[in-house]
């Protein structure tokens, strides 16, 4: 057989067809379950009212509430602090604010109402998220 001659046998066809089917299957799986990202929310217009995270009356002095990916605390009367709800140890979402600490259920990290680490394994504070009071509401700043 010369280099320009080509010969197919049954085994070559079967193996080639199997490889092609496997490649098609893998290709189809790479996008399974992925959705198009949601369009970004429009930026608020200057002077427009911001969406409230919580009412000031709902955040107890010496405590806090978890709203989505934000923890809002009130360490002292009239002082509101916004923090990320993502634990700095392993990325779990904190679950409760109780007895003056923000508590992560995954590995037991506890944070103060200002986000500082009270007990590990986390060794970095919760990230600050700016908030402000508008009327009787706490909004993202």
UniProtKB/TrEMBL annotation:
InterPro entries: Rieske_2Fe-2S, Rieske_2Fe-2S_sf, Rieske_Fe-S_prot, Rieske_Fe-S_prot_C, TAT_signal. Keywords: 2Fe-2S, Disulfide bond, Iron, Iron-sulfur, Metal-binding. Its cofactor is [2Fe-2S] cluster. The keyword Iron-sulfur applies. Residues 44-140 form the Rieske domain. It comes from the Bacteria. Coiled coil: none annotated. PROSITE patterns: RIESKE, TAT. Iron-sulfur subunit of the cytochrome bc1 complex, an essential component of the respiratory electron transport chain required for ATP synthesis. The bc1 complex catalyzes the oxidation of menaquinol and the reduction of cytochrome c in the respiratory chain. The bc1 complex operates through a Q-cycle mechanism that couples electron transfer to generation of the proton gradient that drives ATP synthesis. This is Cytochrome bc1 complex Rieske iron-sulfur subunit. It comes from Nocardia lasii.
